[in-house]
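Reviewers of the previous submission asked for a worked example of the structure-prediction workflow described in the proposal, so we include one complete record here. The input consisted solely of the amino acid sequence. No template or homolog information was supplied to the procedure at any stage.
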Amino acid sequence: MALDKVHPSLKLYIHNDYFFLVPPDRSDVLRIDRVSHDLQLISGADPIPPADEVRDIYGLFGIIRLLAGPYLVVITGRQRVGSICGHDIWKVTSTDVIFFARGTRHLTEVQERHNREYLSMIHTVLTTDGFYYSTSYDLTHRSQQLHNTSPEFAQMPLHERADQRFVWNGHLLRDLCVESDMHRYALPILHGFVSIKQCTINQKAFMFALISRRSTYRAGTRFFVRGVDRDGHAANFVETEQIVTAGKAIASFVQIRGSIPLFWSQMPTLKYHPKPVVSATELQKEAFRRHCEAQEVQYGSQVLVNLINQTGREKPLADAFDSHVSLMSNPKIKYDAFDFHHECRNMQWQNLDKLINRLQPEQKHFGYFAINADEEVVSRQEGVFRTNCIDCLDRTNVVQSMLAKLSLDDQLQGMEVLRAGERTDMHSVFSQLFKNVWADNADACSVQYSGTGALKTDFTRTGKRTMFGAMRDGWNSVIRYYKNNFADGFRQDAIDLFLGNHVVELAEGTGVPCPLERKPSMKYRVVPLVLLFFFSMFIFGLIIPATSVRSQFLYCFVWFGAILLTLFFVYNAGKDFVNQPRLRAKDKDV
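From that input alone, the workflow returned the following structure tokens.
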């Protein structure tokens, strides 16, 4: 068996003093001491002591240390997505978090409360849809990278060879990575989207796959993480690869998205569209340069497709982006600004063709990665489109799907699935499948960043805007508003805890202050109660008969006015009422 494979399944024996993880072939057994927390490989021939519970699991997320001590995070449910080059790809459907110790008597009452909150954060991340893995295939690297490596690299354990940008359980795997012999238990897990479909056009079968890899660097929620950090890592960075295989032939086209790579913020304030603020720091140029150079090393030449508004509150950000590209004066970087909302106003979605036509020369030049039926590399992708809007979600996905379709037509013609001059949209069944996969990708990326499905997916699915799609967008916008203002602080903390951006100290709540102890302002606690009282009095005035209509009207008018004044106060002091993160590490922010 190749060294890079991870055990495909395990039996977990839960004993009073140990966890035993036994693979199907019993080649070795991982024993975890629940008291000393030591991990040790023992012979599979050794007998396993009688266990209190035996469970079937499908892999380890790893070990997370909270106030009460370490917890074992295991995969308890999975769904097969499909296979790529003969390797099964799985989606995580359920997990469990198992406490090492047998109780929490060593904690104070306050520490127990904080530990429950930390544990709730871990569950929040684990229940966010979109974790994928393979026990024998490197999901974190794109096809072009995998076919440009040495034999030694191919024999490396999966967790060592994985692109660490996209390993979401890297922090949890630390204990398993200490000993090289434990590599068959160290399973790198991707967060994003994977879809694999078996298709037929012109009676020729092929596999169509779409993989979106969400970066762990500067990961977070919609308003609390924007721009770049000092290392040049951009918020909401996602690498999306479209793969086609027909027999032994493979074709791959890669695009990336990410927040505008400058120091800027858009903190929630209860306003529907908070104003973006571009930092005046002198570090802007250096962070922008680091980001662009890192992408150049990874992907080659770049076309930066900027879809934000070129007027109004987004204009200063658009201008700063444009000026920094000009200052770099890098011949391998081209900047293309397209005001999506202005160009497509009043349902003029056909204007997107203007942008696609402008980008076609670069798309032809960049090409795509391809291997023929003889397993020979016949072309490489020489550059990448980096697309962004303000969130890198809705508008971004529309444009990426259009570029992907152009590349797919070329790929399938190169594989002789399509005839010369033929396009995928001439085949209605596959065309609809393609649109649905890209719309599902949009929803997945949007849920992970903003908390709701994507907007404008009716255009991606059908090629036109619909009234139902507009109504769905309105509902999603309302849910986004609520989550971004009143829930995302906790969700940001959950991500930072899971990725190791915040490491829990065992002394928190005793000798060391716990960041969870930070109390919201008095206004945050009192004003909602005042508003509830005013609203109750208003309802009371409506339903309780008065001596006259005039007095009842005045009574209701006064309380309704009090409600409006309170809401006005809340709106103007909006930042004080937003659910703020408490664990954020700001050492790389400006």
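The chain has a mean pLDDT of 93. We consider this example representative of the routine output the project will generate in years two and three.
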